[in-house]
Design brief:
single chain, disordered N terminus
Length: 434
């Protein structure tokens, strides 16, 4: 025999072709809930099914209010619901809903009008005079937060009715909690977007306002250095050095902000990454020597590693990675910068035997302002911008950057840049355009 349950969207209730097969009807309700996304429509379906499956006159869902210690009607079937005035609150004490909620158990009341556990306000809410009630708690994570009730079955409620309502109460809990989680996720995403907007706006304004006074400081301090006697040169050098550091921070902030707002420009040209590696390593040789770090280059003979990129931005990428490696490698350590030619891309990696990165921090090292060390304990400077800028620059060129590390043993930072089809992969003539 074909057993089905059909939800009639026009009339708002379930039409039962086989009143004896409760399980089949419940399964059909579950299928309907899995296809529907609107909370109100889902609750209508559950309440209509509750009334039909228990042969009741109507049904209601009451949600507990922690602040007022009473119940507010969350939903009643649309064909009974009053929309022109708010429904009265149902008290926790002196109501069937309150007993079900406090005892976390289903309850049948056969003569509601003469039972102290029944609140007459419920008659007003349901729109009918209630003679009999069956209520079941709606529980999530071990705590009740609502009550599902059906009213006025002619021949009294059975254990089968109770089991059906308890199953529907479980579905109600899942539906309402999922809806709350989805709203929470959407709210959190919206809040995160707003915070990110405010952060970007603050960075843009701050960077813009700092450029002019910082330029004046650098300009005048450089001019003063030429005029002052030798005894003051150390103080002026300190001003120039720290002002230059501030200028680098502002440039880093601007680079990330321009990328995120779509204002970054890339001026690609034919560039030899082998030459970029030579030049950047040369610029960090004195910094490495001060810490007695052995800075090595490993390049394939005859490979210029040609790519079509904005040379200045790739210099920034490698400089930021290499500076990070030198900073976090102890005295007497080793750093190896390697360039590799592949058919479709060029790969550059910087390997050190420094302090390494904890596994919990590794996924976040390219995030802007992220610091592996806390501001109270860290021994190395920086604002956590260098690697985020490197990531921005690589991605602007359609490349990818990543890190591998083991705490206490060192790190390997690698990035790849695509090679155009018409770009040569080998050349014996060293060249660097840009």
């Amino acid at each position: 025999m074909d057993t089905t349950v059909k939800y009639n969207l026009t009339q708002g209730f379930f039409m039962m072709t086989d009143p004896g097969n409760i399980l089949a009807r419940l399964l059909e309700v579950i299928r309907f809930l899995s296809l529907e996304t609107d909370l109100e429509t889902r609750l209508r379906a559950i309440l209509s099914a509750a009334a039909e499956l228990t042969d009741s006159e109507t049904a209601a869902l009451l949600e507990y209010n922690d602040a007022s210690l009473d119940f507010r009607v969350k939903f009643v079937p649309w064909f009974n619901r009053e929309t022109d005035k708010p429904a009265p609150a149902i008290p926790l004490n002196g109501s069937v809903a309150g007993w079900v909620f406090l005892n976390r158990a289903s309850l049948v009341v056969d003569d509601a009008q003469n039972d102290a556990r029944h609140s007459k306000k419920m008659d007003e809410v349901a729109g009918v005079t209630i003679h009999s009630v069956l209520g079941s708690p709606v529980i999530s994570n071990g705590k009740p937060f609502a009550v599902l009730e059906v009213f006025n079955k002619k021949n009294g409620y059975s254990n089968g009715d109770m089991q059906a309502l308890e199953m529907l109460a479980g579905m109600t809990a899942a539906v309402m909690q999922n809806d709350a989680l989805e709203k929470g996720i959407l709210s959190a995403k919206e809040e995160a977007r707003e915070l990110d907007r405010l952060k970007n706006e603050f960075i843009a304004i701050t960077s813009h306002e700092l450029r002019t006074p910082l330029g004046l400081i650098l300009g005048h301090s450089t001019f003063l250095k030429e005029l002052l006697v030798e005894s003051y040169s150390e103080q002026v050098d300190a001003i120039i050095r720290n002002a230059t550091r501030l200028k680098e921070i502002i440039e880093s902030l601007t680079s990330v902000d321009n990328y995120q707002t779509g204002g970054a420009l890339v001026r690609p040209r034919k560039v030899s990454l082998a030459r970029v590696i030579d030049d950047v390593c040369a610029s960090f040789s004195s910094m490495a020597e001060k810490k007695n770090i052995d800075l090595k280059k490993v390049l394939q003979p005859g490979r210029e590693l040609w790519v079509d990129v904005d040379a200045g931005k790739i210099v920034i990428v490698l400089s930021n990675i290499l500076k990070n490696a030198v900073s976090f490698t102890e005295n007497g350590g080793e750093i190896v910068v390697r360039g590799e030619q592949h058919p479709d891309y060029v790969k550059v990696s910087v390997k050190d035997n420094g302090i390494g990165i904890p596994a919990k921090d590794l996924p976040f090292v390219f995030d802007r302002f992220y610091q592996v060390e806390t501001h109270l304990t860290r021994r190395h400077g920086g604002m956590g911008l260098g690697l985020s800028v490197a990531k921005v620059m690589v991605e602007l060129h359609g490349g990818r950057i990543w890190a591998d590390s083991e705490q206490g043993k060192g790190s390997v930072f690698s990035f790849i840049l695509p090679v155009p089809n018409d770009m040569p992969v080998a050349s014996s003539t060293p060249a660097f355009d840009g």
